[in-house]
Amino acid sequence: MPETPYSRNDRALTDLTPSPSVDELKKDLRRRAKAVRSEAFAKAGAATAETIAGHGIAFAGRNAPAIVSGFLGIGDEIDLTPLMTRLESEGYRLALPVMEGKGKPLVFRAWSPGEPLGETMWGIREPLPTAETVDPDIVLGPLLAFDSRGYRLGYGGGFYDRTLARLRALKPIVSIGIAFDEQRVDAVPHVDYDERLDWILTPSGPLKCEAA
């Protein structure tokens, strides 16, 4: 890939503490990435859901009945319903993330396709408070951009970074970003507390993220 401002700055940014310069780089990339994802969704959004489901998650090396947290896509996020339906049929236990407030990690509640959901801010649907709280073994997450090292550009709230850090302190987990191929960039600006993903799953198939 041709060098970009993000790839040129990547090495210098690796060990930086949070600073306006990193924030501005993320803000600029976030704006561009939203447009890229929107265009990719417009081209192949509906078909992508089935393609992603067809890949499954055997590549992650965690067998059923491991607990898999998915997400219910909103806007131009990829629809994971077909994949989650497949995983349930293979014996995996399913869960969905729940927001407990700004600055807090996500929690997870057990869920199966067809079970009732409540709607919260931004149109996000979550399992009801009566659902069992669980800690997933595999976390599937949305994103705006990703790179081959597993750095993920999210929406700016830090929910997944805090969540992955909490889960990794409890037990070994596998984190998988769900994305269109077009969302890949040379390098995502990051700081030392940004959590890397283990895999990216796109319509082309799974990509193992490498530290170097």
Key features?
disordered N terminus; 212 residues; two-stranded antiparallel sheet; ATP binding; 31% helix; globular; metal-binding; Rossmann fold; 5-formyltetrahydrofolate cyclo-ligase activity; single chain
Explain this structure.
It is a single chain. With 212 residues, the chain is an alpha/beta fold. The chain has a single domain (5-208), classed as Rossmann fold, CATH 3.40.50. It contains 4 helices and 12 strands. It has helices at 5-13, 20-55, 81-89, 159-170, and strands at residues 67-69, 93-98, 107-110, 117-119, 125-127, 133-134, 138-141, 145-146, 152-153, 174-178, 199-202, 205-208. The protein has an 8-stranded mixed beta sheet with strand order 6-3-2-1-7-10-11-12. A hairpin with an 8-residue loop joins strand 2 (93-98) and strand 3. Helix 2 packs across helix 3.
Strands of the widest sheet, in order across it, are 6-3-2-1-7-10-11-12
Query: Could you say which structural class the secondary elements and strand pairing correspond to?
Result: alpha/beta
Order of helices and strands: HHEHEEEEEEEEHEEE
Quaternary organisation of the protein chains: single chain
The amount of beta strand, in percent, is: 15-25%
GO molecular function: 5-formyltetrahydrofolate cyclo-ligase activity; ATP binding; metal ion binding
Binding site for ATP: 26-30, 152-160
Cofactor: Mg(2+)
Region (Disordered): 1-22
Q: What's a quick, concise take on this entry?
A:
Substrate binds at residues 72, 77. One of its GO terms (biological process) is folic acid-containing compound biosynthetic process. The chain is α/β, with parallel strands linked by helices and 212 residues long.
